[in-house]
Design a protein that fits this description.
121 residues; alpha+beta; three-stranded antiparallel beta sheet; single chain; four-stranded antiparallel beta sheet
Length: 121
């Protein structure tokens, strides 16, 4: 039997879950720069506040990345699926656009303070 307390508990958990999901999708600091990686190796880091076009040519594949008005998008790819091209613009820290067939990843990063961000043994 379902009791009144069970229904109330379900509603509380549902509301809490929806609020947490909303916060996850709307939270995030505005990024400062963009890392572009190809096959897991850093291709370049670019200032998000400077409008520019980056063309990544590798292994007979081409990707075109546009940084404009503090946002970045992949405007062209010669891959088959085109999911990366249809992805919305990104501008918040840790957001990514990935072109799996061409192995190109665009990641928005926060303020770069110099020095090391990872130490590995």
């Amino acid at each position: 039997m379902i009791k009144k307390a069970d229904i109330i508990l379900f509603i509380v958990i549902l509301v809490f879950g929806l609020a947490l999901t909303f916060l996850c999708f709307t939270a995030g600091d505005k990024g400062s720069y963009v890392d572009v990686t190809v096959k897991g190796d850093l291709y370049g880091s670019y200032d998000l506040s400077k409008d520019q076009v980056i063309t990544v040519n590798q292994d007979s594949h081409t990707n075109k990345i546009i940084i404009k008005d503090g946002k970045v998008q992949m405007s062209f790819s010669d891959c088959k699926g085109q999911d990366c091209v249809h992805h919305k613009e990104i501008s918040k820290t840790n957001q990514q656009i990935t072109c799996l067939p061409n192995k190109v990843m665009v990641t928005v990063r926060g303020a770069w303070e110099g020095g090391y961000d990872v130490i590995s043994n």
